[in-house]
Amino acid sequence: MVVDCIEGVCVQTETVLRQAIQERIRPILFLNKLDRIFLELQSDLEQCYINLCNSIESVNVICSTYKDDKLGDIELIPSTGNVGFGSGLQSWAFTLETFAEMYHGKFGLSKKYLMKKLWGNHYWDDKNHKWLKKNDKNKILERSFCQFILKLKFFFFCFSTFFFFFF
User: Fold this and answer.
1) Domain that holds residue 114
2) Cβ-contact 17, 27 below 8 angstroms
3) Residue 86 CB: number of other CB atoms within 10 A?
4) pLDDT tens readout for residues 148-159
5) Distance (Å, whole) CA 86 – CA 32
6) pLDDT tens digits, 16-45
7) Helix (H) or strand (E) holding 153
8) For the chain, is the Cβ count within 10 Å smaller at the N or the C terminus?
9) From the CB of residue 144, how many other CB atoms can be counted at a distance below 10 Å?
């Protein structure tokens, strides 16, 4: 299932998901057009994360509405690897596994465990070198998805856009 991360779930999304579930096809989700978040919305990284969460939640509501017990759990959660992110226009995509592969050596964690840390309410306290489950009000910490994924993708997106327009 491909969903525009700005437009969110459309009527056709529900139709396609309902049909797939009826045919016992396990859904996966690709949130497309992340470049639009950076260009059009110019949101801060936390707001980008919230937009992505809202899109995922909307798809999960549809999945739970039409669930088939024979399929088992079909909830779409980035930390399990069944949600991808990217830009079809700019030909780039990733899953949390992509970044867990990059970072697992730095943190000394398994890729599977690190995938769980890269989504949701997980924050890396660089000063104390530890993971936190909530943002300490005395420390302004970024959510790990924003810090280790969106910030990096935003940097490369801006660099490639600059390079394309000026060279």
Assistant:
1) 2-166
2) yes
3) 20
4) 999 887 655 544
5) 5
6) 999 999 999 999 999 999 988 877 777 788
7) helix 151-166
8) C
9) 23
C-alpha distances (whole Å) from 83 to each of 27, 90, 99, 129 are: 9, 19, 13, 28
Give the residue with greater pLDDT, 62 vs 159.
62
Specify the number of domains making up the chain: 1
Whole-prediction pTM value?
A: 0.87
Tell me, rounded to whole angstroms, the distance of Cα 1 from its chain centroid: 14
Joined together, the tokens standing for residue 113 give: 């465990």
- Quote the DSSP letter at residue 72: -
Amino acid type, 112: K
Q: Determine the Cα–Cα distance for residues 163 and 53; give it in Å rounded to an integer.
A: 31
Q: Measured in Å, how far apart are the chain's first and last C-alpha atoms?
A: 36
Rounded CA gap, 59 and 1, in Å? Answer: 9
Amino acid at 11: V
H/E segment holding residue 97: helix 96-107
Per-residue CA distances from 40 to 26, 37, 85 (Å): 32, 6, 17
C-alpha 59: how far from chain center: 13
Q: What is the DSSP string of 15-55?
A: HHHHHHHHTTPPP-EEEE-HHHIIIII---HHHHHHHHHHH
